[in-house]
Each structure stands twice: as C-alpha cells, then as structure tokens.
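User: Hey, quick favor. My workstation is busy. Could you predict this chain's structure for me?
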Amino acid sequence: MDLYLDILGQRIRARRRELGMTQEGLAHEAGLDRSYVGRIERGEHNLTFVALVKLCRAMRCDVAALTQELPRCLHSSALHDKS
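Assistant: No problem, here it is.
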C-alpha cells in the first residue's frame, strides 16, 4: 500500500462521512462502482485524476481540499521518523 494513497483514501472517507453519505451513495453520485470507492478509501487502488474529480464533485469539494499538503506531509513525517 502506498502511503499517499492511504492518506488520500482516509481524506475521502472522512469527507464522505462528514456529509453523511454511504459508499454506495457516493459511488452513485460520482458514477463509480461502490467496490471501487471502497478500494480507494482503503488506499488499495491508485485512482485516476478523473475519478478523483468525480468524487470531489459528488462531495462538493475541490481536489485541492483532499490533496492539501501532499506530498509534503509525508516528507516531513519521514524526516521526524529518522531522528
């Protein structure tokens, strides 16, 4: 599992839950398969930019809101782990 995908998936799940949406509801609104959304949220699938845009549109947020501080947040945490 890629840490970037894990973080992005966690952010997508958090936003979906903030909106009170189910995975099925989000998938329907975004025009994606529910199992695909589940794999994205678990960080198991490297989603396309188009899929990310569709998810953001369905969750009424900008792509930037979900990708803020990536990749910087991992770079700084990796530096702290080495000390």
